[in-house]
Amino acid sequence: MRRVVYPGSFDPVTNGHLDIISRAARLCDEVVVAVGLNLSKSLLFTVDERVGMLREVTSDFSNVRVASFEGLIVDFCKSNDISAIVKGLRAVSDFDYELQMAQMNYSQAGVETLFMTTNPLYAFLSSSLVKEFAKFGGNVASLVPKHVLDRLAERARGS
Ligand code: PNS
Question: Which atom from ligand 1 is nearest to the alpha carbon of 127?
Answer without folding.
Answer: 1
